[in-house]
Every structure is written in C-alpha cells, then in structure tokens.
Amino acid sequence: MAIPLGVEALKVDGKPAWLPWRRLRQLGVMGLNERNADFILPYNPRKNYPLVDNKLLTKELAIQAGIPVPPLYGVIEIVHQIEDLSDLVSPYEDFVVKPAQGAGGEGILVLTGRQGDRYRKSDGELTTEEDLGHHISNILGGMYSLAGRPDQAVLEYRVKFDPIFEHISYQGVPDIRILVFRGIPVLAMIRLPTRGSSGKANLHQGAIGVGIDLASGRTFSGVWHERPIEEHPDTGGQLSGRIIPYWDEILAMTARCHDFAGLGFIGVDIVLDETQGPMMLEVNARPGLSIQLANRLGLLPRLRHVEALKSIPTEISERVQTAKTLARYTA
Amino acid sequence: MRGLHVKTLALLLVVVGISICWFKVTRLGLPLVPTEKADVWTVEARIEFKARHDAAVKARFAIPRLPPGYTVVDESFVSGDYGLTTEDDGANRAVEWAIRQVNGYQVLYYRIRLARDPSNQPIQAPVTLIPEVRSPHFPEALESAAKGLMGEALKKSADAKTFVRELLVRLNSHTVDPNVMLLRQGIGDEEEWVQFVSDLLASGGFISRPAHLLVLRDGINHGALKPWLQVFDGHQWVWIDPHTGELGLPEGAVPWHVGADPVLAVSGGKNIKVEFSVSQREQDRTLVAEQRARQMGSRLMEYSLFSLPVSVQNVYRVLLMVPVGAFLIVILRNVVGIKTFGTFMPILISLAFRETELVWGMILFSLLIFLGLLIRFYLEYLKLLMVPRLAAVLIIVIILMAFVSVFSHKLGFDRGLSVALFPMVILAMTIERMSLVWEELGPTEALVQGFGSLAVAALGYLCMSSRYLEHLIFVFPELLLVVLAMTLLLGRYTGYRLTELWRFRSALRL
After folding, report:
1. If both were cysteines, with which of A110, B271, B372, B422 could A122 make a disulfide (CB 3.0 to 4.6 Å apart)?
2. Percent of all residues in chain A with a pLDDT value above 90, rounded to a whole number
C-alpha cells in the first residue's frame, strides 16, 4: 500500500519553535478546539450520534456487522422492573450494569461474583440488592446520561480480562482505545486501571495510558497523571514491550465500527476477554486527546494525511494495511 | 471555504455595527463615555393677559426656530383648554393658542430646553426671494436730518455691513451733531431704537429687519427679549448689534424671532404681558443627545431602546450585558480552557452578583453551595430517586436561602438579604452536578470546577458591571453585532487552549 503524499513533509523540520503553541503545532499535537472544529463537526454527522451514544443500539449494529461484543443479559427500562432483577441475573454469577446512554464511563458497575444474597463489586466490597436497585434507578432517572435524559440500564457479560494484562492492571478491566479516522485506525493506546482510578479505565480519573505501535501491536511506555511512567505504580509490571494479541483482528474491528456508525472521527474501545478474544465495548463520537500523550505523538500529521487521501479502500484489510504503513512512516 | 464564509459574515457584522455606532456618535452626538455632562438651559415664557368676555381669544407667540449653537432638547406648551397649533414659515416659528370663550386672567406657558452644542450650526437656506426695501416713515421734519446723516455714512462705506457700522458710529458719537440730536429725540426704549435704525437703513436703500434675542443667563426670572437687528447683505441675513454695529450674535444669545411682527399678539385680550425665566442645569449628555435626535425625527432613535418605558429600559440595561458575559465565557472556555459547571451558569451567578455586590455575592454563593453539598451527601445516603432528589435539593436551597437572609438580618448584615436574588434552580443544579463530579472524579476535580465557576462568575461580574461597557452597549446596541462577529470568529478558532499548553507540557519537553 503506497502512501500517496510525501510523508517526509509531515515530519517536524527546522529547529524547535520557542513559543509553546508553535512548538505544539510543530509536533502536530491537536487541541480540543481543533478536534471539534476540524474533525468532529465536519466528519461526524449529528444524526448518527444516537447510534453510538446509545450502547444498546451500538451493540445491535455491531452484531449485525459481525463485530464481537459482550453478550447482552437484559435491559431494565422502567423502575418497576427492578423488582425482577434477581430473577433476571440469577443465571449469571457475574455481570456488568451500565447506563445505555452514559458518558465518560460513568455509572458502570462491575459485579464480579456473589456472596449469599449479596453481590461483590470489582473493588472487592459487597453490595446489597437494594443498593444495586438504587443504582439502576439512578441510571433510569438519567443521572449518568447526557443532559439527564431518562435512560435504560444494560446488564451484560462481564469481561474477564486476558492474563496478558495481569501484571499491568489493578482491578477493573483494561481497555484498548483506538482512534479511527475515515475508517482508518490512526492512533492506539491501552488504558490500565490503577488503585487511584478505583478500577476505572479513564485517564482523567488516574488510569495509565500506554501507547501502542499500530504497526506491530507492541506497547510503548505510558503516561500517568500526564507524566511519563515505565512501570505500573501498583503492580510494578513493565509497561512497554508487551505485544497485544489479536492485533490485526482488533484493528479490523475498529475499522468496521466506522462503517456501521457512519461517523468519520471516532474512538473505539476494545476489551480482551480471556476466552472470547477481543470485544468491542463502545464507540465514542467525541474521543479524548490524551491518547497523544500516551503515544507521545501528535495526531495531526496522521489525520491530515488520511484527510488528504482521495478515496478510502472499502476492503477492511487494505485499511488496516494503510494504517500500519502510516504508522511506520510517522512514528 | 467555511472559514472564509464566517470571516465575511463577521466583517459584515462589524462594518454594520461600527457604522451605525459611528453615525450615532458623529451625527446624533451620542457620547461614547457615560460621564459627559452637557449644560441644559430651561427657558420658560409666561404669557399673561386678561380675556375679554365678549370675544374669542387668540394668542400668537413667536418661538425659536433651530437656534444656532444650541440643540432643542424638548419643548412643551402649557395651555389648559386652549386649542394649540404651531407653524413654521421658514424664518419664524409661532404657536397659536385659541379658545372661543374664556374669562378672567389667563396664563399660558411655553417651555423650551436647550443644550449648548457648538457643532450645531444649521445651514441657512439661501435666500431666494430678495426682500424688498420698505419705505421708511419719518416725519417730514426728520427726513432731511436723516438724509444728511446717511449721506455722510454712505460716502464712507462699501456695503450694507460697513454702512450700518458707519451710521451707528455717528449715532452713538458724543460730539454734538444737530442731525443726530434731532433724530434721537423721542426714542424711548430699545424696541424703538431698533425700529429707528431699521428705518434709517431703509431710507438709505438697505434692507434690514428687527429681531429679538433671548440672552441665556442662569437665574433670570422676569426677563424680556432683547431687540436686535438683521441686515440683508445681498445674499443672506446678517446679525448686527444695533448699538455698536458689531456683526454676529452676542455670547449666550438665542434668536427668538425676526421680522417686524410683534413677538406676542393677543386678540380678545388686554393687559398683555410676557415674561421669560431662564435656568441652567447639568444633564447627562446621553439623554440630551437622545432627546435631540428624537426632535430631529431620526428613525434610528425612534426605534431605540430609549423609546421604551424606563422600567423596561432598566431591564434591558442588564439583559444587554448578557451577550458580553456570554462572549467572556467563550473566551474563558475555548481560548483559556477554564472548566465550569454548566456553560452559562456562571453568567447567571454574576447577574446575581450585580445585586449582592462581588465580595458578599461570593461569600453567600460559597456558603449556599457548601451547605447544599453537605445536605446533598446526606440525601445520597437515603438512596432517593433522581427527580425527587433534585427537587429536594431545590427545596433545601430555598430554605437555606431564607435562613441565611433571616440570620444575617438578625445579626445586622443587611447584605445577606440579597441572597434571595440568586437563581435558586441554578444553585440546586450546581450543587447536584458538583456532588456528581465529587463522587465520579473526586473532590479535587469538583473543587477545581467549583472555583473555576466562581472565578468566571466574578470575572463576568467585573465585566458586566462596568459602567462604560453598560453605557456603550445600551446606547449603541448595534455593538452587539460586533460581539456576535467576534463570537462567530472564535467559533472557528482551532488554536490551543491556554490550559492545553499545560496539559501537553510533557510533549513540549520531548
């Protein structure tokens, strides 16, 4: 797969600029304003937002597109249904409760097991069925949804993360975030929960972001609280040099997500299950920019490059190839 | 392409906004800063006469017409049951009061307010109709004396202006000229003197007419008009001092009436008297200019905010500042990158600060949020449904507000009463969101956003309470187009936010 534009031209040339904003431009770091004005607004049509903002809808579309997702156990739509909660989850030892239209990973409750009539949360604490019911009623009331709209609670399969992450993750589920622009993966990172992030894989809340080489699926070193880090602060595991399994499959999944969502600039979250392999968790129409810090690489050169492509190959494998070539040239 | 579109639109808005503003400043004289004061003279003419019971009464009174060097702020007539008409013949304006049947002493008032405005020199319409020389009416005996005097003056002059001066020098001279002695005999008051000079000029073939001025001096109570003289120099009428022959109007004088007709004529009345009173006052220039613009019949001002009732005006004085606050939010969020609770919540808080004042506002706001948060955390423990919980927070906020007011009143801080001006729904939502952020992202993030909101509200208050800005926006609401233009331009701003320079600082070190 040839790169039609001179990639050399995209590289930083000349001496480093002294003014910080000039320097960031040189490095191709993208700011929020630029993300919103030049990528989200032009490439993400508003009407397709519900497809990704509602996780039930996303799940359905993904299944149709042949993308593996965590199996759905049930949906709670009205407060009255909470009474039947124990019947609904009785076949399952563990499960996850999440708002269908939640934002920023808020309102997700991971239940790892049972103890009598209580449920064990991912942090090891026990919670009663009443507390769980209250959490669900909060979800239904719209506490975690955008603009406080009434919402649905989704009960689904709990991902048991691949042992590869055992030494570099503290509770919670590490997830892989891949930015996909016009159907071509452009940047990837893995988010590792820490003690500080209380099991959440959100960089704002103290998770570690580790950049991944798109071409090989090998991890770089990470950032934690916006500072470079080599080892996981809680487990001491080495962050860099780990190979993500199923890497090509993961890239292909994210490229497919673009097709069903109809959004040009998305962040796709992937988790690795120890038995079922990679599964798509959610698609984000307003992906954050910390991924640049995790990779220590500005997004703009790759984005501008993909933007300049006259046509995007329809074949998924070709897109994955393009992504890998791009990554090799602009590392 | 889109960028160009926005820029063109912004440019258009700026051009329109600035040009309307420019027009208002240069043509209508609206001041750009609120401190400017203008001298405003209030002149009142009091007309008094005794009505004859057997006849209809008609009073015709000359009134000023476009006085040079002044602008008419407003004009009013107090006329009771009288019918009122005004007319303008191009040289004079007059008001006519009429009534069919009236008894006893009658008092009519005419009041005009004038503001000094040296820039206002109405262009005199060129005199198209050359006035005719009227024949003087000297008694036989005086005619030769007049001729003698004129002969001398004519020889030493070139035109009407210099002739009048020569003539007056002779008339006023102390050397005993028999002709002058003869002529001056029997001239009583100034009125007759002007008439006499005018007659003399007429007999020399020069055109002149008597006139009346009002000299503006603060505190005049039973004043009268000052007779003056106008001479036609072949092109236009020129003011001339009937005593010294100096050209122009005296300082502080307003032409009231020109021509031979009387200033006041009353038919059906006797014991006619007119008195003038003058007083001076300082007034806000904006008001002066606005009233003046309306007098000029400017459409722009007719549909300005000044045409609204004062109470509504005061509402708009505040409302029009909201765009300024919104623009500030745009800058603080998209250029600086400060995080706040809710997009425009800080603006509503700063509007409340307008009433409570800054320091008190911030103390009361923080106090309410603090107490509200404590109670909100307790409610969390009760596991309530979301909407009832929000309603509960709202109710508690209002109860807290009442408590703060009552306690501060008891303690003698009346400022605490103004807590009632905080938008309580906004407070309730702020408490709710802050507690959510507290739980989800931790107390640090909650406090950062809380202080961010407070800082933005304080900045917004400082911006929105600026007298200069308020004046500018209220008097020139078209400047909002400029604010809109800048907002549109920032809508296409793709540069970094100031806080992002910090966020990506590790990238800078590479």
Report:
1. A110
2. 36
Q: In this structure, are A90 and A148 located in the same domain?
A: yes
Say how far apart CA A56 and CA A229 lie, in whole Å: 36
Residues of A in Cβ contact (< 8 Å) with B505: 20, 226
Q: Provide, rounded to the nearest whole percent, the portion of chain A with pLDDT above 70.
A: 93
Q: Please report whether residue A66 resides in a domain.
A: no
Domain count of the fold of chain A = 2
Read off φ and ψ for residue B47, nearest 5 degrees.
Answer: -110, 130
Between the two ends of chain B, the Cα-to-Cα distance in Å is: 35
Q: What pLDDT was estimated at residue B138?
A: 67
User: Tokens standing for B179?
Assistant: 């002709």
| Cβ B456 vs Cβ B367: under 8 Å | no
Q: Give the pLDDT confidence of B200-251 residue by residue, as tens digits.
A: 777 777 788 888 888 888 878 888 888 888 888 777 788 888 877 778 888 8
Quote the domain boundaries for residue A260.
7-51+162-329
Binary contact (A141, B493; C-beta < 8 A): no
Nearest CA in chain A to B380: A134
Tokens representing residue A207 in the block: 């998770």
Model ipTM value: 0.77
Q: State both tokens at B141.
A: 């005996």
Residue B125: predicted pLDDT: 58
**Sequence spans of domains, chain B:** 36-132+208-297, 136-206, 314-476
pLDDT of residue B124: 62
CB pairs under 8 A between A and B: 79
Q: List Cβ neighbours of A326 (8 Å cut-off, separation of 6 or more).
A: A3, A7, A184, A186, A214, A302, A305, A306
Q: What residues in chain B have per-residue pLDDT under 50?
A: none
Question: Taking CB atoms and an 8 Å limit, are A21 and B504 in contact across chains?
Answer: no
Residue B305 contacts residue B474 (beta carbons within 8 Å): yes
For A139, nearest residue in chain B (alpha carbons): B386
> Å from B501 to nearest chain A CA?
7
The answer to whether A154 and A261 are in contact (CB under 8 A) is no
Question: Measured between CB atoms, does B334 come within 8 Å of chain A?
Answer: yes
